[in-house]
Amino acid sequence: MKNDQIHDQHSGTRTASRRTVLRTAGAAVLAASATGVTAGVARAAADAASEAASRPYDVIVVGAGYAGVTAARELKDKGLKTLILEARGRIGGRTWTSDYAGQLIELGGGAVDPKQPNVWAEAKRYNIATVTDGGTIDNYVLPSGNGFAVVPIADASARIKSVFTPFFDGVQQLFPQPYQPFAQPALLNDADKLSMQDRLDQMRLSADDLKLINGTTGGLSGGSSKRGAYTMLAQSWALSGYTYEGYQSINTYGLQGGTVALLQAMLTDSGADLVLNCPVAKITDSGSGVTVTTKSGKNYTAPHVIVAVPVNLWKTITFSPALPSEYTSVSTAGIGAPNVKKIFMRVTNSSAGTFIAGPQEGFPLSTTIPERQLSDGSTLMFAFCLDPTLDATNPSKVQSVLQQMVPGIKVLDTKVQYWGADPYSLGGWACRQPGMLTGPYRTIQQPRGRVAFATSDIATGWSGYIDGAVESGITAAKQVTTLAASTR
Ligand SMILES: Cc1cc2nc3c(=O)[nH]c(=O)nc-3n(C[C@H](O)[C@H](O)[C@H](O)COP(=O)(O)OP(=O)(O)OC[C@H]3O[C@@H](n4cnc5c(N)ncnc54)[C@H](O)[C@@H]3O)c2cc1C
């Protein structure tokens, strides 16, 4: 079976798509990612930052992930000049094109899909090809009784589909227009109270069937199905066309050259100046302009600011005047799923052939997926891990967990990104908690004074995906353009 017939997204789900990614110089692109004030290799970073502080900008964007860069590009299209301040030494945030075992890899988000209109349009606009891999996967390793069973992929997919599809009974009525999640307020009020675990409980599944799907719901939630809102996954199902196949297929494509290739093209087009290694600590809105203060004490001013950092980071920035409680409480509770690690590894000796593993909630590794065969005879795989106690940088620890599912398998080495502990993400993909969508969500999508917000975490459509980041960047740029026109 072609491996793009099954799939996953993010964590708990089951991605099977492998990509023939052109091994363009991902790292070199990253190293050369800065434009504008940071472009000159010879120019000292401090000089560049000082120069930026004295230049007149219409808008300062905080954060150079997909949401922030999209906002800057949109503002340029409206004739506004933008400065981007980024905490890290690279662009991309929760997308991170890196390299491992001589391969280009995505340590964060990587998959895009034609059902995701915003990011798909960007790829077309900048002529970035989408890539997929036609490799095959033999088996699915599934929980069975107290252990695991190796099941031919077609049989396993049919079984998962039959258990998973009823989880979404009624979603067509709940989200008849997937990009307008509030269209059915009465139904939504009830549904948004449910955690994914509540919905699983309603289904009264057998122990084995429960284990078939709670790895997905628990994984998306950041470790426990009790944390994630049912409406989060239900809306993704609706956006995918209300079918298992539609939902499965959203992880089929990657971007040629990696996510950084598209983002770099957008950044270059934005004409924005970018300062890297510049974490923002304070944002002061005087009513007539905004001052952004970095951790190192440097001030930048502009008429407007777009805060394009993850929601989980809002609580780490001092806003003056203070943000209303809706913003602070959501940031404290968190939208970005906790505990998320993405692990790349080289494996050999698989008794299950090429396989996907979909263990149950609570197992130290979540979905485990083959990416491609390597010329040294090993297989490049990646896995998600929601267990903060597993030291995934230690190959023998990962191996002993993997061997519980596939006896004899060997892990040669690993490369890990722990998003939950990363100070500039404090979590992985967005997964709202029960009550957030019907509660503070519409408020936190709005600007406060001269400060607007952009991130996939507050998107109306594909929140939790690159597409949602692009959508949110477009929205924030519109909000600021309207404000700028009214305050001129
Ligand atoms: C492991 C993983 C797998 C995923 N898989 C997929 C997938 O396959 N497909 C998909 O579509 N999506 C996927 N996602 C989700 C997707 O990556 C995100 O939704 C998207 O990248 C978020 O973009 P953003 O711009 O909203 O936020 P971010 O990418 O987090 O960007 C925010 C930026 O703000 C910066 N920042 C933070 N604090 C400060 C500060 N104080 N001062 C200045 N800058 C600051 C950060 O460094 C960062 O660059 C995945 C995410 C993860 C973690």
TrEMBL record:
Look up the EC number in the record and give it.
1.-.-.-
Does the record bear Oxidoreductase in its keywords? yes
Q: Cite the GO molecular-function annotations of the record.
A: oxidoreductase activity
Claim: Transit peptide is one of the keywords in the record:
no
User: What InterPro entries has UniProt attached to this entry?
Assistant: Amino_oxidase, FAD/NAD-bd_sf, Flavin_amine_oxidase, Flavin_MAO, TAT_signal
Pfam families listed in its UniProt record: Amino_oxidase
- Describe the location of the Amine oxidase domain by residue ranges: 67-480
Keyword line: Oxidoreductase
Superkingdom assignment: Bacteria
Going by the record, the broad EC class of this enzyme is oxidoreductase
User: What cofactors are annotated for this protein?
Assistant: FAD
Entry's family note: Belongs to the flavin monoamine oxidase family.
Q: What is this protein called?
A: NAD(P)/FAD-dependent oxidoreductase
Organism the protein comes from? Streptomyces gibsoniae
